[in-house]
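Workshop exercise sheet. Pairs work together: one partner reads the sequence aloud, the other fills in the structure field after running the prediction. Swap roles for the next sheet.
Pair: D.N. / O.F.
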Amino acid sequence: MLAALDPLILERWAQKIGPDWHGFHLGAILSVLLISVICGLVGSLVVGNRMAFFSDAMAHCSFAGISLGLIISFTMGFTPKSEELRWVLPLLMAGFGALVGLGIAFVGQHTTLASDTVIGVFFAGAIGFGAMILQAFKSRQMFDPERFLFGGPSLVEPFDLLMLAILLAITTLILFWRYNHFLFASFNPSLARSRGVMVQLNNYVFIVLLALIVNFSISAVGVLLINALLIVPAATASNLATNMKSLFRTTLFISVLTGLVGLYISQAVLLPIGPGEPKQFGVSGTIICLGVLAFALSMMMPLLRRKFGAFGSARIAVARSGDQAPLA
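Structure field:
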C-alpha cells in the first residue's frame, strides 16, 4: 500500500491551495512542520533528563545504522533501486539506534564510569563502524553524505511525509501514555521510585522513542537539524518558562516558530554572491542559526526581568514614601 502512494500528491495539494504554490514548497513546509512538532513535544524531556549529549550521540550513531542497514538490505537481495529499501532501511536504522541507546543505558547502570564517558565510547564506535563500511559505498545513489547531514526538506517525497505523520502519532500516543511518569522520573528519580513509578522502564521507552524520531527523520531534515531541534528550543524555553507546563508549551512553540520562519528565510532571502544567479541559504542551517539566535536573546530575559523588576520596585517605594509624607 505504501509503495502505491501517488508520487504527484504534493503537486495536487499545491494546485488546490493556490497558483503561487509548488509541490516542493508544500512538501518542505509539511516536513519542517511535522518534525518541529515532534521535536517540540519531546525536547523539554530531553533537556530535563540531561540527555543533550545522549541525543547527539543517538543522531550520529545513525551513521553506523545506515552502514549496517545497507549490509543487511543487500544481503537480503535488495538493490539501490528497490522500492522496499525506502522503508526497510529506516526500520533497520531505528532498530540499531534503539539497541545502541539501550546499550548506553545498560552499561551506564552497571559500571562506575561517568555517563559522558560511556556515551563517548559508543559514539566513537558507531562513527568508526560507519566510516569503515560506508567507504565501500561511494556511490551517491546508495548514500549521499550531504543529504544525511543537512537533509533536504524541499526534496521530500510523499512516503517521507507519511513516515513523519506516523511518527508524530506514535510520539503523541507514548507521551499521552507516559508523559507524567517521564516528567516525574526526570524531576526526582528516587521519589518517583518510592511512588511506584518504573523509572528504568520509562528510560528504556524514552530511548526507543528517541531512536525512532532520529532515524525516521534523517531523510527529510538531516542529522544536524534533528539534533538541534531536540535541544535548542528546549534550552531557549528553559530561560523563559517558570514551570514545567510552560516549559513544554514554550518548547513546542519555539520549535515550530523557528522551523517555519527559518524555512521562509531560506526561500525568500537571496545572496547576490559570485557569478550566476543569487544564492539561497540552506534550510537546515538557517533553522539552526535562527534557533541559536533565539537562545541568545532568551539569555537576556532574566537580566531584563531583574533590571525592570528593580526599577518597578523602586518606583513603588517612591510612590509609597510620597503617600506617607506629612502634609506641610
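Discussion prompt: The domain at 22-221 is CATH 1.10.3470.10 (ABC transporter involved in vitamin B12 uptake, BtuC). What would you look at next?
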